[in-house]
Amino acid sequence: MTIALAVVDAFTSQPFRGNPAAVCLLEEGAEEGWMQNIAAEMNLSETAFLMRQEDGSYTLRWFTPQAEVDLCGHATLASAHYLWESGHLEAGQQARFHTRSGLLTADKVAGGVQLNFPAEPVSPAVAPEELIQALGLIPRYVGRNRMDYLVEVDSEETVRTLKPDYMLLGQVETRGVIVTSRAERNTDAGYDFVSRAFFPAVGVNEDPVTGSAHCALAPYWQGRLRKEELLAYQASSRGGVLQLRVEGDRVLMAGQAVTILRGVLEV
């Protein structure tokens, strides 16, 4: 059996930047264990598994090398990009995905691909001792939603130079930890805020660019900065840019994508 496969760099216009995701297009249902094995073999932060439905929408599931997750932005963007590029969807056709987080959509826009995701605002939380020790700093703010902790720190430099203790961070009872600050004002990039995201509990020490993290970051910084539209930079070694807008209980996030590999799985 052969199955179409692509690797797409998401939230970037340049190859080998942004966040790579594997996109696997299934013709029939697959067992969860098999999908987990494929994700482990691909060894990327996420592998997306798509299967077309009768109405032209797709089921979509996301797996890290170690676990299935409830929400993933970059692999959804990569999936939509691949469906349009490969001709499975027409250029003007909306991509519709049935997921563990409900119906998610993607549309082609001037800035690339725009995702419509649920907002996941955080509420103030007491930081576990393991979290403070793993980060090695005193946060300005700590919040939590159903998936992650969000930690605001004092500066962009702190975000960029942070070296967490991944072993200790993986002991925190959460999917992941998002560290963020307001962007430096003396640069020409025009970013409103920067972030990094760490998920050692699900096998990804640092995720290069995390769409689902911005479901928390967008409403947080909209409230702090009082801006309708936000430009975000995820300051991993690969880096990625997201254009954000909060509309009620939804977050619209746009970014670009580049396909770097197409092939087949022979399994």
UniProtKB/TrEMBL annotation:
The keyword Isomerase applies. The keyword Isomerase applies. It holds the Pfam family PhzC-PhzF. It comes from the Bacteria. InterPro entries: Phenazine_PhzF-like. Keywords: Isomerase. Transmembrane segments: none annotated. Coiled coil: none annotated. Belongs to the PhzF family. This is PhzF family phenazine biosynthesis protein.
